[in-house]
Every structure is written in C-alpha cells, then in structure tokens.
Amino acid sequence: MIQNSCNNKRIALYPGTFDPFTTGHLSIVERGLALFDEIVIAVGINDSKRCYQPTAERVEHIKRVMKDYPQVRVIAYDSLTVEAAKQEGANFILRGVRTVADYEYERNLAYANRNISGIETVLLYTLPELSYISSTMVRDLQRHGYDVSPYVPDEK
Asked: Rounded to two decimals, what is the model's pTM?
C-alpha cells in the first residue's frame, strides 16, 4: 500500500466539480470516512465545463456543509487530479459510481492514474435510494424553479 511520507494516515482525495454538491456526494464522503482517516474534497476547476456556481461559492458551500466533520478538508484545484492528490498528501482517490457508464469511465481513469502516479482509486457505489441524483439533474430543476432541497445537503 502507498503510504503518506509524513505519516501512516490514509488520506483520500475526492475530486469533482460538485456543481452542486448533492446528498449523493455527501453520502460518499460519510461512507468514505469509515475507510479513510481524512478526506480532501477537491473542487476541480475545469475550463471546458460551464459551471452553474463559481468555484469559490462551491468550495464555501461544501465547507459549511462539512463543518462538523473535522477529518474533511475542502480545496479547489486546477491541475491533474493525481497532482492535487500528491500536493494534499493523499494516497488514494475516492470516487462514487452510480451507473455502469460511470463504472467504465472511472475504471479507465483509475488505471491511468495508477499508471502515472501509483495512487490507487477506491470506488464506492452510490446507495440505491440516491442513485438517480446527479448534479446535472439538480441544476436543471434549479434552473426551472423547482425546490432542490431534497437533493442538496443542508449547511450547518
């Protein structure tokens, strides 16, 4: 197992655009805490994606949602995910999988990330009752004036 050079903590980077951060994302973090000592939620800056909320707002919102979780940090990054993981001292990448299509995509990323960095990816399957929730769905509902509170976690 790859270990953090500073200590033996199991640190996972949980990357995504999180536009917005949903109850599905929160579930992955909460379940991931049973596996990792620390989770770094990494909000990716991706110029090829048009985001609904600015990066700084997404980071601050997630920080407020996660404020009761001292073992969770939230950052923004604009590099390769494995570079952000190394910078944050993470020895794992955590990802959630909702569908077969997600699995295929994540599997290929995991192979590439391990090949270029040695960092392992851990996939957690979304809970069945949350599997239909996606950031895209939430944005569409929000854009059309629907209440999205069942799909996004409350701020603390």
From this structure: 0.92
Residue 79 annotated to the active site: no
Per the annotation, the verdict on 86 as an active-site residue is: no
> Letter for the amino acid at 47?
D
* Per-residue model confidence as pLDDT tens digits over 32-71: 999 999 999 999 997 777 788 999 999 999 999 999 999 9
For residue 135, indicate whether it is catalytic. yes
The Cα–Cα gap between 47 and 153 comes to 26
Of the candidates 73, 86, 98, 107, the residue annotated as catalytic is: 98
Residue tagged active-site, from 25, 58, 61, 95: 25
Question: Tokens 């995991």 label which residue?
Answer: 110
Question: Which amino acid appears at position 77 of this protein?
Answer: Y
pLDDT digits (tens, 9 = 90+) for 85-105: 999 999 999 999 999 999 999
Say if domain 11-143 classifies as CATH 3.40.50.620. yes
117 is catalytic: no
Residue spans per domain, the chain: 11-143
Catalytic residue of the set 49, 50, 144, 149:
49
